[in-house]
Write a structure and sequence with these properties.
Order of helices and strands: HHHEEEEEEEE
Shape: globular
Strand content: over 45%
Strand order of the largest sheet: 1-2-3-4-5-6-7-8
Distance between the termini: 34 Å
Helix content: 10-25%
Oligomer: single chain
Radius of gyration: 17 Å
């Protein structure tokens, strides 16, 4: 599973590098607000807040649709991977009842949310959905965040995710928005 996540991250970064070399215009900086539908890929490294500062990695895809002037709706699906010393399969996000050994944990979150642009490039967002555990079980998940639209189709956000209670920095590239 680590190899699959690494391959996904490398593909995302390679795509980001190619697109970053294209020209940057004013329209590309505001495309995330002006385009009616956007497709994107993201990578979000982070640290847990309840497991003794464990590293997490999150990668996935999202689709974003403009609803009204400054409000977008989005759905995303991805993979969160981390190691937990206190994990018991099927118990999310409460990791208290673990057996005290380090175990690889992989979650597959599927969420939907709203993104509201407070300024032309600065936004707040909230999302909710379900996280499926590859060991069995599932849990309701939610995630607030703040972000900034960058030139060239990039989007940088900081978010809290309650499964597995981590803070992450998410870098997204929206395909076709850098043209």
């Amino acid at each position: 599973m680590k190899k699959q996540i690494l391959v996904l991250m490398l593909i995302c970064l390679f795509t980001l590098k190619i697109k970053a070399q294209q020209s940057d215009s004013y329209s590309s900086r505001t495309a995330l607000i002006e385009k009616p539908i956007l497709f994107g890929a993201y990578v979000a490294p982070g640290m847990t807040t309840t497991l003794g500062s464990r590293f997490t990695i999150n990668a996935g895809f999202e689709v974003q649709k403009k609803i009204i002037s400054r409000l977008n709706v989005f759905v995303n699906a991805g993979v969160i991977h981390f190691k937990s010393p206190e994990y018991k399969a099927g118990v999310l996000p409460d990791f208290i009842m673990g057996e005290g050994y380090e175990k690889n944990v992989t979650l597959i979150p599927v969420k939907a949310g709203l993104r509201y642009f407070l300024l032309s490039r600065f936004y707040v967002e909230g999302e909710a959905g379900i996280a499926l555990d590859t060991q069995g079980g599932s849990s309701f998940v939610w995630s607030p965040g703040i972000g900034l639209v960058l030139p060239g189709g990039f989007d940088l956000a900081v978010k809290f995710d309650n499964a597995p209670n981590h803070v992450a920095a998410r870098l997204t590239y929206h395909f076709g928005s850098g043209k």
